[in-house]
Write a structure and sequence with these properties.
Helix content is 54%, strand content 5%. By secondary structure, the chain is mainly alpha-helical. Helix 4 crosses helix 5.
């Protein structure tokens, strides 16, 4: 197999053309990148100039607004005419909604005391979890867990026909209040 080796002049022209193409692409990318970056991200100096002009414009507008409100003391300047109507001002009484009287916050107490307190309150009449929350002064989550535990232990009954549920005390709950302990031990977790 015979390979023809081209003339060295042709090889030199091909290598020079390749190198000039690489240099041209490099220069093109450099010039194009600089032009694009200036259009996308203006320099900080340009931003400062823009905002400075905006602030000067706002200051001028503010000064004009303040001048419109002043009275002029020179007689040759036109005075601002204000038309006013002589309508008596009638003050309407403000309606202030009465604040609901919240029960005094119960001081921090143990879980056992909370159970006894809630059972005693429910003995007075059926209560919702919101009523218990306000009376006890604890969070909604705390009251929800407490009432779920009392319901599971059959100390309170739950009326599911209404929303929110209304809780009533059961016979087991009345016995618990009467004996003071009831033989149920609760683990306190906080």
């Amino acid at each position: 197999m015979i390979i023809d080796i081209p003339d060295t002049g042709i090889m030199l022209v091909a290598v020079l053309a390749f190198l000039s193409g690489i240099v041209t692409l490099y220069l093109y990318n450099k010039t194009r990148t600089v032009g694009v970056s200036e259009k996308i991200a203006p320099t900080n100096l340009e931003r400062i100039d823009y905002y400075e002009k905006e602030m000067i414009d706002m200051k001028i507008r503010l000064d004009v607004m303040e001048l419109d409100g002043e009275e002029y003391t020179k007689p040759d300047l036109p005075t601002k005419k204000v038309t006013s109507f002589d309508v008596p001002e009638v003050k309407e009484p403000e309606f202030v909604a009465p604040k609901p009287k919240a029960a005094a916050r119960v001081p921090n107490m143990s879980f056992e005391k909370s159970v006894t307190f809630v059972l005693e309150k429910i003995t007075e009449g059926p209560m919702t979890s919101r009523d218990i929350e306000v009376t006890l002064g604890k969070s909604r989550e705390h009251v929800s867990r407490l009432m779920k535990k009392l319901f599971e232990d059959n100390l309170v009954g739950r009326d599911t026909s209404t929303r929110p549920y209304r809780y009533t005390i059961t016979e087991k709950g009345r016995e618990r209040i009467g004996s003071g302990d009831g033989g149920v031990v609760y683990a306190v977790s906080q």
